[in-house]
Amino acid sequence: MNKIAILGSTGSIGTQTLDVVASDPGRYEIVGLAAGGNTELLIEQAKRFRPAQVCLATKEAAEQVRPFVPPGTRVLYGEEGLVEIAGGSGADMVVTGIVGSRGLNATLAAIDAGAAIALANKETLVTAGHLVMERAAAKGVPILPVDSEHSAIFQCLNGEDRASVQRIVLTASGGAFRDKRREELADVTVEQALSHPNWSMGAKITIDSATMANKGLEVIEAHWLFGLPYERIDVLIHPESIVHSFVEFVDNSIVAQLGMPDMRVPIQYALTYPERRRTPAARLDLAKAGSLHFREMDFDRYPCLRMAYESGRTGGTAPTVFNAANEVAVARFLRGEIPFLSIERIVEAVLERHTAVANPGLGEIAEADEWARKAAEAAKG
Ligand SMILES: NC(=O)C1=CN([C@@H]2O[C@H](COP(=O)(O)OP(=O)(O)OC[C@H]3O[C@@H](n4cnc5c(N)ncnc54)[C@H](OP(=O)(O)O)[C@@H]3O)[C@@H](O)[C@H]2O)C=CC1
Ligand SMILES: CC(=O)[C@@H](O)[C@H](O)COP(=O)(O)O
Ligand SMILES: [Mn+2]
């Protein structure tokens, strides 16, 4: 049986991973589950999947859970607990389904323990891609993409020589406001921004999708996962989210991966790679889909995407700062403190004040991350 640990088991990626696990009885053993504060759901998951250890974000949440999990379950908490679940649960594979750069230490711990990474937590690669990829290569640990676009590219590249890739193209739905002009965005509400046209996801990524920061994070994620320069990573708007991304080869052939917008497909592909198995996801009926649409990206309409490319090209701590400022600005928008368009204004203001450190170590990444968070909290909305 494959031993799986899930970081963020109560979230969108986590619950869909458990759906995949439950759909294939006897194939997987859940050895660790980590959540933030959803104690009720974590207790339910612990009773059903019987992991040897679980983790909550705080001691208080851990104490709430302790009396209700099966006898013998270790109940951990905090960053230390998360790192223990990732690196000390005996998992063959760790699914990184928590949000934000706080997933970095746990991802590194899993790599150090020799576990394969099913990577959903894109912020980890954005904040310290060189360190994660170097560590994984040194340990011979595979980093398997869960993000739908990256899973698509990974599937299209299967067995192909990298030298024959002309470019990869990530598709973008356009998010909640894809049919609005910039002038119409000043007064949009949190509720409107959380209404993604195609995918049901956690709050942070749904807002990132509306600002196009999500695609920016994904461009940087693709740079690290596939070892391609930014000149060969493009983005195209595709409102239906049926073509999950594609690769254009030097002979001008395009290979794309299509499917219904259902994360259980890329999650399962990472879990069973290189094998393909049946999934609980619906089949795509192209005759019913009828027509698919594509339109060019407008970088003036989506400054967060432009800033992500610029940060990626600058490298060093620039992507760390882009990510941290964006995380804080999105949290502030979700708390109702700032209007939607202030997200991009805050990210821009923080990036302007930052001088990137080249080839940063973990300490310099942590410093840049902390500085950017403080600057973004203090920035005028
Ligand atoms: N959702 C999707 O379809 C996709 C998501 N991704 C990426 O996957 C990651 C997860 O996204 P998503 O599932 O949508 O997010 P959600 O907000 O739905 O879930 C986040 C998870 O992280 C947990 N969590 C929060 N704080 C902590 C903490 N301090 N310690 C441990 N766990 C914590 C939450 O726990 P709790 O709820 O108990 O507080 C929850 O289980 C993100 O990086 C996102 O960009 C990528 C592609 C698609
Ligand atoms: C499901 C998934 O992978 C998300 O990252 C999704 O891509 C978000 O959609 P858009 O960013 O294209 O709106
Ligand atoms: Mn994606």
From TrEMBL:
Needed co-factor(s): Mg(2+); Mn(2+)
Domain DXP reductoisomerase C-terminal: 258-374
InterPro entries associated with the record: DXP_reductoisomerase (IPR003821), DXP_reductoisomerase_C (IPR013644), DXP_reductoisomerase_N (IPR013512), DXPR_C (IPR026877), DXPR_C_sf (IPR036169), NAD(P)-bd_dom_sf (IPR036291)
Membrane-crossing segments per the record: none
Pathway assigned in UniProt: Isoprenoid biosynthesis; isopentenyl diphosphate biosynthesis via DXP pathway; isopentenyl diphosphate from 1-deoxy-D-xylulose 5-phosphate: step 1/6
Catalysed conversion reaction: 2-C-methyl-D-erythritol 4-phosphate + NADP(+) = 1-deoxy-D-xylulose 5-phosphate + NADPH + H(+)
Pfam families listed in its UniProt record: DXP_redisom_C (PF08436), DXP_reductoisom (PF02670), DXPR_C (PF13288)
Residue positions binding Mn(2+): D147, E149, E218
Binding site for NADPH: T10, G11, S12, I13, G36, N38, N121, E123, G202
SUPFAM superfamilies named among the record's database cross-references: 1-deoxy-D-xylulose-5-phosphate reductoisomerase, C-terminal domain (SSF69055), Glyceraldehyde-3-phosphate dehydrogenase-like, C-terminal domain (SSF55347), NAD(P)-binding Rossmann-fold domains (SSF51735)
Function: Catalyzes the NADPH-dependent rearrangement and reduction of 1-deoxy-D-xylulose-5-phosphate (DXP) to 2-C-methyl-D-erythritol 4-phosphate (MEP).
Family per similarity comment: Belongs to the DXR family.
Matching PANTHER family: 1-DEOXY-D-XYLULOSE 5-PHOSPHATE REDUCTOISOMERASE, 1-DEOXY-D-XYLULOSE 5-PHOSPHATE REDUCTOISOMERASE, CHLOROPLASTIC
Entry-linked NCBIfam families: Dxr, PRK12464.1
Protein's recorded name: 1-deoxy-D-xylulose 5-phosphate reductoisomerase
